[in-house]
Amino acid sequence: MTDPAAPPSPQWTECSQLTETPDGTSRCRGEVVEPYSKCLSHISTEERTRHFNSMHERSSVSYQGTRIDPDLFRQVTSVLNHGNTHAYFTYCKFTGAILRITGAFRSYLSFASSEFQGITQFSDVEFLGDVEFTGAHFKDSAIFDSVKFHEGASFDEVDFSDWANFEDAIFTKDAFFQNSRFKKATFDGVQFLDWALFEGATFGIETTFNRATFENSANFTNVTFEGFAQFIESRFLGAADFHSVTVGSGGAFFTKALFAEMSRFGPIHCEQVLDLAHAHFEHPVLLDVDAGKASLKHTVFASHASVQVARADVDLTHAVLNQPVDIIGAPFTLNFETGAVQSVASLTSLRGVDCAMLTVANLSLTNCTFSGSIHLDQLRLEGRWYFNRSPRGFSMTPPFRHTSRQVIEEERRRRALSGRGSSHRIWGNRPIDRVTPRYDALAIIYRQLRKSREDAKDEPGAADFYYGEMEMRRLSRKWITSERWLLQLYWLLSGYGLRASRALGWLTLAMLTTILLMMAFGLPQESSKQEAVGIVPPNGGKVTFEIGNADPKNPSDERFSSIRFEKSLKATLNSVVFRSSGQDLTTSGDYIEMASRFSEPVLLGLAALAVRGRVKR
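Predicted structure:
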């Protein structure tokens, strides 16, 4: 903004009249009005009339340092409304409870460094020339609603000690609010048709820019919002800069905002909520966010976007990703004493999101919900990420020992909701929202996550999701009874081919059982001996013998001896590798060996399969 007239000297000839003020008697510092020796407030009525009548002949007037009451200011502005005289009210003190200003001002006005003691109302005023309030102090409400600024407007370093209302104001040219201080500010429906600079400004308990329009650049660099800030349904049609913005406990709300050409949003620090729900980003953008919670519900990313978050819980429910979008968390910090992960950003919801364009890196997914997401199998997980963990420990029922695995939040909620007895303690508290996907729907989610990890060549990472998929199939009532029993057996024996310790445990138990049964019933009393049986003819002659083994006899005395244990162990070990022991066995021993040769190699194969699933790359 340029000053169309040379400003008066900051050193002016003072009136020096004694003036009664609330603080006592003091000398007036108002600038004298030529050709008189007093300021505007102390000259006589006749002199003031002559001065007003001659104002149209002057290019500018100056009333620096003058105390102006509402009546006097009304007289001055009525003259200024009908002329082109530039007016300087620099360092003035405007008194009175209410100061109302009306009309249209055709030329330059300066209220720089002035003090407004009461309510100042500029409703429906038009400033056809530049206007300057730099360094002014509004001790009470300042109302600029529906004001039209046709030229530049400067509010740099202004102190609004009460409410500043710019509702439905129109700034045709540059608007400067740099380093200003607002206690409570309302810019609802305001239109900035050119530059809007708020760099370094401080906003207090409440700030609203709802339905505001920024047609050119908007600069909010280094701005502080001590309370909450609302930009609901605002439109940023040009470049917008929110670099190094700090928001207090109230949160920042950009609901339904439009960002047409913004290339960088942030870094922005919010103690609690950053709400970008239903916002629309048309240009490739980098969002740098540090907040307690970041809501991107129904947010539209028309171009590529990179969202870098620190400690925030990011909600992407029904977000629209037309181009690749990266959600990247700040690097993890690990407490080596406790093993706890600190300062971790998290993703809380992917409901209704097409994940084909989504990449997630360095985020916690412990509380993330996936139901309703599309193309989840194409979700890319990079860097360090982790899901929730299932309960671990021992129980009185098979499989006795529960191994921890990665689980999604919806499984935890379903188990806590469906469980009885102590299940709510094992799987956490029951969810407040009882609308939780059923087990068959969770099986589909796990299947897609498994495929995502398999496509990334992460076989060990896919193993937990395969386990979760099989668990949901086993627990679902959708499958026929025979299939569920088959899955029950598969789970019990080897944890779906993923729990080597379980398969080896059952193998050891089967081998011990086989050894005991062999010692008790399978091995004969003694090794069979060959017998030759023949008949001698009465008249002599050739004798024919038939040689055969005697039938093994079940033991009748000591069954459990070291010799019988050694024979049983050899028979069992041969059965594990699907070989016949070649020993003499009783009839019961034959059936015991057949059962052992069928079950024990299967258990050994399941254990090998589980080991391979964990070490395969």
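Summary: Residues 306 and 326 are 5 Å apart (CA to CA).
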